[in-house]
């Protein structure tokens, strides 16, 4: 019998990279706590994550560890000549970006006629 059993619980949120044609989108969902961020970092390894957009529309909570992932993605993408855009964000994400002074680091897509201006 294995005495080193690993207890795993479902995580309250997720971070994934989705391919949409040529674009790579970092998708955050649910409660993106430190456990979610650490699992994503373990899966990705040390290589920089270059993405074209971030979709955080359904995030209800974001930890500082997860916020650091967003910052590293923005830096890696900019260094690769692919500045990313914050395609969608929830009030929780908007709030933390404002409080930390990072809201200007994550540009939004241009507003389309007839749509509301994005928060920021």
Q: Helices, strands, pairings?
A:
Blueprint: E1 13-20, E2 23-32, H1 34-44, E3 53-62, H2 64-79, E4 85-89, H3 91-100
Parallel strand pairs: 2-3, 3-4
Antiparallel strand pairs: 1-2
Features:
single chain, about 120 residues, alpha/beta, Transcription Regulator spoIIAA, four-stranded mixed beta sheet, 4 strands, disordered N terminus
Strand segment count: 4
Write down the CATH class. Alpha Beta
Mean pLDDT: 88
Strand order of the largest sheet: 1-2-3-4
Give the H and E element order.
Answer: EEHEHEH
In CATH, the topology is named: Transcription Regulator spoIIAA
Name of the CATH architecture: 2-Layer Sandwich
Q: Strand count, sense and closure of the main sheet?
A: 4 strands, mixed
Distance between the termini: 54 Å
């Amino acid at each position: 019998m294995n005495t080193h059993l690993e207890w795993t619980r479902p995580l309250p949120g997720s971070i994934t990279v989705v391919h949409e044609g040529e674009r790579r989108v970092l998708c955050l969902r649910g409660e993106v706590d430190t456990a979610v961020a650490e699992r994503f970092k373990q899966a990705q390894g040390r290589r920089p994550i270059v993405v074209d957009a971030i979709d955080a529309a359904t995030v209800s909570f974001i930890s500082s560890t997860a916020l650091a992932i967003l910052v590293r993605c923005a830096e890696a993408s900019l260094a690769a000549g692919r500045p990313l855009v914050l395609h969608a964000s929830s009030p929780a994400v908007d709030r933390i970006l404002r409080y930390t002074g990072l809201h200007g680091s994550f540009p939004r897509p241009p507003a389309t006629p007839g749509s509301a201006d994005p928060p920021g």
